[in-house]
Amino acid sequence: MEIEITEEDIAFAESILLAPGASFDEERRAFIKNLSTLDLQAVPGSGKTTALLAKLLILDRYMPFADGSGILVISHTNAAMDEIKNRIGLHCTKLFRYPNFVGTIQSFVDEFLAIPFFISKYKHPPVRIDDDLYDQQFSRPPFYLDKFSKQENKNARYFLLLNRYAIRWSFLDGSAKLTNGLRGPMIDFKKPKGKTAKEKYQDWSTTEKGRVQSWISNFKTKILKAGYLSFDDAYFLADAFVHKHPGVKQLLQKRFSMVFVDEMQDMKPHQYGILEDVFFNGGASQSAYQRIGDKNQSIYDGRTETEQFWIDREVVLHLNGSHRLSRMVATLVSRFAVSSIRIDGRAKGKDGNDIPIKPHMIVFPADKVEAVIPRFATLVKSFVEAGSIPDDPCNKYKAVGWVAKREKGKLRLCNYFPGYTRVDSKRRMDHTSLESYFDHDNRDRNISPVERNICNALLRILREEHIFDENGNPFSKRRMFAFLMEARPDYLQLFRSKLYDWCMNVVRGKKSEALSEFKAHLPEFLVQFNGVINHSAPFISAPAAATTSSQIASLDTCNMLQHDGVTVEISTIHGVKGETHTATLYLETYYEKGQGGNFESERLADQLKGNTIKATAHNLVKQSSKMVYVGFSRPTHLLCLAVQEARFEKIKKDLDENAWEIVWC
What we know:
This protein is an alpha/beta fold. The protein contains 26 helices and 21 strands.
């Protein structure tokens, strides 16, 4: 299959994705036209996602392909997938249909590898692939395995509960093994000496170790067969599928002749590994496989150290031009690149000239830590009044730090802003109480997520009451409605009406009313399944433990500071990855006592003085450098770094005066 992208194709993509009169630069045009296997290393603000979207828009014009194949587009998060669909969905008539697949790495592995292999092995689909539901299996009342003594059962469960988040199935050397983390080292089953996981372990006898290992293997096999899979289990099954049936690789390569993976640096090693195995296949793949990202921004999952599992292809293209960063900020950011890359700052002011604001270092005495963010706000105001920062209501000002958690004697994000609240905004499918399923952001008028939550609550109650379908499997939403339609058609109409009323009350902010009506109707619902409220009673009556709707609604204001008419939002560095700000304040924080000191200004003193990072630098230094690289590369206009006075005194002598403007707090 030969496709040659033309200038007319690119002009079509420009008309949809770019402002009138704007065009793609030569770097992005070279990437858009190239349909072979390659890597794209792109600096922050280079427009790599827009370039990828242009390529997808153009390929949609050439579909269906003559050989019947499609394209695969993978990213790390649902948010990234939503951006793709929102920006080009209306203009693509074929991209989001068979034989193509656009989704997260998890959804790809689930749909094409884990679930098919599970069904072929156990003859029924899994209940769900979800960490929360998987973890529920460990909180159920203890059970005992018949072939083990009472003491052996006790020993094994104790060991398992202490290590519940570490023990995983891994497919190694052709068989399933229990490891410390997915694809991690084999577990050395040692007897816990104390009552907490933090205390040291002591040896059991070889026989005792073997019995503990055997019990845990049987226990986890029971959970797996029942269809309760963690996200890691999906990759375990995918590894097993590819090993036992290597022909699946050729089938997937034939299905997807082109594969695009965005934000490759955010993939975990096992995600990277399965993609490499299937779509690169040692260089023998039929697929054109393109990996897109920035190695220097790999700050997730503890991989901010030197681990570089992403090894360059023979062909590596670069997007060096940053349309976000000014020339001065780009020069500074490039010094913190662990994987050396040139960053050309191409951002311009409204007058078409370079943005004239030099990065600022805010120096503060130890007793004025809470004055740092207000000082930043005052700086922002002065630049707005001077016209160096445009006076735009859409401007975004943020203060970011690496570590948020409060710890006595250690400078953290919460010391700069004592009111900082870290709320987990993850949309959980399962919660610890019924009430939590009724929590909802009232600003979102969409009924769909509310309906999904309430149905998940009903499925949870059915599981708690040990009510299963005709095959002995827990109900899914689809099977629950199918059962009611077939066996209880008269009730189904009433149920749909009730469900709609509950959802509408939640959306209207009447959560208590919806929850009360739900509880009142629940006995009648369970009667349809010949059940009553019994085991699920604690779950139904428990207070909400997840984020409440009022907490969600306050997210817009709880982590914000207003000073001098300027509003500054406070966040972690992980929380702002991928964002663009008008001005960013980087707050140094204490992170691990180790090589070079405890703070970024200590470990990265050489880079603050104008030197690039050395290949031989300590892991902790490189880890810190990646955090600074991400944090420093957010702003379009003003970058500030807060450094405590005592640490500033140690670096001020050789500080690069061309790079920094020093101001005091």
